[in-house]
Amino acid sequence: MRHRYECPLRWADLDVLGHVNNVRYVDYLQEARSALLRACLHAAGVERQEGVGYVVVRHEVTFLAPLLFRSTSVLIDSWVTEIRGASFTLDHEIYHEAEDGSRVVYVRARTVLAPFSLESGLPRRMDDAARAALAPYAEEGERTRPLKVDVPREHAAHYPVAVRFSDLDIYRHVNNVVYFEYFQEARIALFGKLREALREFPRINVVVAQTDLEYVAPITARAEPYDCWTVATRMGNKSMVVESEIVDASGAAPRDGVLARSRVVLVFFDATTQQSVTPPPGYREAIVDALGGPLAVPSA
Length: 300
Fold this sequence. Notes:
Helix content is 18%, strand content 34%.
């Protein structure tokens, strides 16, 4: 069984291309996820799980088609694809459905969540009650794999991440959706380095095709900004890959100070035709020269 959620669109969700911004899709998924968990608890005969919270560990979001503003709600199907000892995985599909049953699918996504104790703030295992509540929505699916990124600081663009009070969720951590905004702002800063290098070329937009984001440790509010480091790691004929890390350099964070990491696939896009495009000769080489690092440009 799949849970269906009707999500209204807002004018403020649109980006400069008139599409729903990639960050807003993750906001829609959060609404759908909350509705699913409420339905699970209602079916189990309880209003909420005392002392238990859920945090997002991982997002994998594949963008399939641009979503334009319309008065009708977008539909989101959500279902459970894996229940492990200390986490569970939800798959999602965001779409519109015509009267004849045909669909236009805009996004397919996967979210890994983990329960934790509200009292101690520490992870906890999935209990029998939670497993039983999720079971009606279970379908077999693929297992997620760890996200590995490589962000050499000597080639990376730096962006200071300032946490706003409104970025926090009910657990006083930065909400999982806001991380997508932080990484988006860092990408914009990275592309700011390209303006001079690309001034001889016609303007080419980019759209997000895929975002994988892993949450390593919570980000909390503080006066000092965190550090986001971003590099372009791969250049294709019609796309490029950008990898980023948000780091706490104060020494308070565990291990190497990494709080979150992401990999984003960007596609070169023509706003007039609404299609992906191959940049003109020299365009990708200009990006590589401007950004530096171990990038290679494929042969045409």
